[in-house]
Amino acid sequence: MATINGANGVTDSRPIFFFDIDNCLYSKGCNIHDEMQKLINKFFVKHLDLTTEDAHMLHQKYYKEYGLAIEGLTRHHKIDPLEFNYEVDDALPLNEILKPDPKLRKLLESLDTTKVKPWLLTNAYVSHGKRVVKLLGVEDLFEGITYCDYGQLPLVCKPSQEMYAKAEKEAGAPSTESCYFVDDSHLNCKHAEARGWTVAHLVEAGTPIPRVPASRYLISSLHELPVHFPGIFKPQEVESV
Known about the structure:
Rossmann fold; 2 domains; six-stranded parallel sheet; two-stranded antiparallel sheet
């Protein structure tokens, strides 16, 4: 197994636990997704001169084809991704929606970081990702973030294998098989599982269970992670779940 040398010359062979951010670290009940959809559709209408209905249809088409609306915009309309980020993600009123989450913080603190490295993996741009974890009060509990770099074309994002390879490299994964991952996207989980990652698909209570499982593990809450992966959580925390 390959190992990574840390900044102090100390060998770091810890597995990586990748966490998705949106609709994963916070509940879909926050309705941030809905707010984002409105801003994305507004962007399509404004920059592509579409009707609201056509904007919605094209937005959904690009999301299904590429996993990210901005991917379709850059491929077919030469839209500047950073302009999109400014008018969509950075325009979200997150400070009015997200608050520090003590339960989430306790869960993340229960990860045994002598055995695993917590890392963020998002299709959002870095400014949005950092903003979310800061508002949730957990930004200090992750050792890094892999994001879709809107400043570099072509865009690299989940569920492409290139994005997962990028995440492994940036996080210093000892091997592909030493990666854990939790995400609310069926497509993202499916492709990560196919890569060889150990994947937990987050499907919140009240959301339809997929007919075809995306991965081996299916959870309705992040707080179920210690039950499935007790070896990377502190023993006392596992017992209290």
